[in-house]
Amino acid sequence: MQIVFSTQQWTENFFSSDQKKAVESLEGGNILHFPQLAFALKPEEIKFLSPEYADPQAKNIGYNPKLNVLWGAQRLSDDERIKLKAMLDRFSQSAYNLVRNLLPHYVNSIVMARTSFRPVEISNRKTSYRKDDKRLHVDAFPSAPNQGRRILRVFCNINPHGEDRVWRVGEPFEKVANKFLPKISNPILGKSALLRLLKITKSYRTLYDHYMLQIHDRMKADEHYQINADQQELRFAPGSAWIVQTDHVSHAAMQGQYVLEQTFSLPVSAMKNDAHSPLRILEKILKRPLL
User: Fold this and answer.
1) Could you say which of 53, 125, 150, 212 would form a disulfide bridge with 140 (CB–CB 3.0 to 4.6 Å)?
2) Beta 69-71 vs 61-64: how paired, if at all?
3) CA–CA distance from 104 to each of 110, 249, 266 (Å)?
4) pLDDT recorded at residue 124
5) Average pLDDT over residues 75-92
6) Which of 249, 215, 213, 257 has its CA nearest to residue 232?
7) CATH number of the structural domain 14-286
């Protein structure tokens, strides 16, 4: 379900009633939609609206706002690299301002993660089923375990050709978990420590990460589920933005080109109601702690 806000400014000051509605809706598995919230590019940045700058070996162009590091880009002069970094840095700050003002309950705990620019048409991307974001899934990362922390993402469609970003949104997380958990076995003893030792994972893969990654992979692998699961199409027009917790909301990106995205990490303890978190839902179903 989409909860619509009429804001047109990334720095808008929201009423407390809107803040309450936003945090409760987001934690309840809804998408916060801002149909009139555009991210304006500077004249010298318009040139980056081309797939030619995206490294075909990378999924997206990525940026670390803390370290000022760019990756997944190609064919950039030194000056162009500086300008693209500046564009992504400005978006990351805009996304943070929006989250800070709309979701003040999170401000003291939320951590800014990476920024991404997605200039390639997603409907044409050929990849393995595990990396295919056109398949319904909840987010979980094989090399970067998040150890129960929430994945909150701010998206903005900056397409200059009037093309929507088209998503499919699936059934509630608890229903997804109840369907796939019975098919998942416990991890092999010592595997998480070995993965960390060999630096295959950036941090220790907890039981929570094991189950989330297995749910992610099994959702994408199940062709029958992809077709027959309860789902609806959502369209995000150019000049619009949306916020979603992608570890909770089953989603698939079907069409679209030129999207900016900022990821934030949020401890479960910072939630207004942590019973809605994937961590607590999985623990309830499995009847055991996962961290």
Assistant:
1) 212
2) antiparallel
3) 10, 22, 13
4) 83
5) 97
6) 249
7) 2.60.120
